[in-house]
UniProtKB/TrEMBL annotation:
Family that this chain belongs to: Belongs to the binding-protein-dependent transport system permease family.
Keyword 4Fe-4S: no
Pfam families (alphabetical): BPD_transp_1
Protein's organism: Microbacterium suwonense
Protein name per UniProt: Peptide ABC transporter permease
Record lineage: Bacteria, Bacillati, Actinomycetota, Actinomycetes, Micrococcales
PROSITE patterns in the cross-refs: ABC_TM1 (PS50928)
Length: 293
């Protein structure tokens, strides 16, 4: 087992985040082939059923099984989070590389462009794009990915500039490595901890963005299960059936918390500086304990 994975799993927060993300992935994959009931099947005679058998989480106002809707919503959430993560990675790395490794006029142009784009909130960008192209999960994933790709570029760019002045990067350049080879071999691995935190945060906010946009009608369509859409449908009856709103809200909360905790734990596990500091601190504490003893 790699050292970073052992470090990740030895952390309580890292283990919790990994378990939550793995659980969401498994539920999303299972829901693609099986759910207890058809998520879109309405049964007026079984509307507002209490949690029990066969509807373990109850039903909504049209008789749809809430457990099936939550499971199918996990598939939607995973698609948006993964899609936004891929888009944010491509946009962030491209802008950061252009803003750190190119000619001065290109670097300054990219820096100004990033400062302009970052002034617009991600949800506003997503709503504007959805208003033009229509609400869909693809639009949400791409718009959220672009918005957070700009944020990733702004944070990663100065880190690339700092690492670029390191001796091993200069040695690689002197040995004949191209800018692209230096970027892949030396620069990106050394900025990975900062990048991982930003990426996990962007994926966590993508989950919230999808739920919020679907809640407002700009995200998932009526034929697609979504935690945000389910919240929008159930919140009107929260005074009569409050328990039904708990399940999609709890799913969103746990997913966002798991992604954030996993990102923090990955940063600590992959950052050699933090590992050395942690080891030094443990040795210091152990020495103090032995002296006291």
């Amino acid at each position: 087992m790699p050292r970073w994975l052992r470090t990740l799993l030895s952390s309580r927060t890292g283990l919790f985040g990994a378990v939550v993300v793995l659980l969401i992935v498994v539920v999303a994959l299972v829901s693609a082939f099986w759910t207890p009931f058809d998520p879109m099947l309405s049964d007026i005679r079984g509307r507002w059923a209490e949690p029990g058998w066969p509807h373990l989480l109850g039903t909504d106002g049209t008789g749809r099984d809430i457990l099936s809707l939550v499971m199918a919503g996990a598939r939607t959430t995973l698609f948006v989070a993964a899609g936004a993560g891929v888009v944010a990675t491509v946009v962030g790395v491209a802008l950061a590389a252009l803003g750190a490794l190119t000619a001065r006029w290109i670097r300054e142009t990219v820096a100004v462009l990033v400062d302009i784009l970052i002034a617009f909130p991600v949800l506003m960008i997503a709503m504007m794009i959805s208003a033009v192209w229509g609400g869909s999960l693809w639009v949400v994933a791409v718009s959220v990915g672009i918005g957070f790709g700009v944020s990733i570029a702004r944070v990663t760019r100065p880190e690339l500039r700092r690492v670029q002045q390191s001796d091993f990067v200069l040695a690689g350049r002197a040995s004949g490595l191209t800018t692209w080879q230096n970027l892949v071999r030396h620069l990106l691995p050394n900025v990975a901890p900062v990048f991982i935190v930003q990426l996990s945060w962007s994926m966590a906010v993508a989950v919230l963005a999808e739920a919020g946009l679907s809640y407002l009608g700009f995200g998932a369509t009526l034929t697609e299960a979504s935690w945000g859409t389910l919240l929008a449908d159930l919140q009107r009856y929260i005074g009569v059936h409050p328990l039904t709103v708990v399940w999609p809200g709890l799913a969103i909360t746990i997913t966002v918390l798991g992604l954030n905790l996993l990102g923090d734990a990955l940063r600590e596990a992959t950052d050699p500086t933090l590992s050395r500091n942690g080891a030094a601190e443990r040795l210091t504490l152990a020495g103090e304990g032995s002296v006291v003893a």
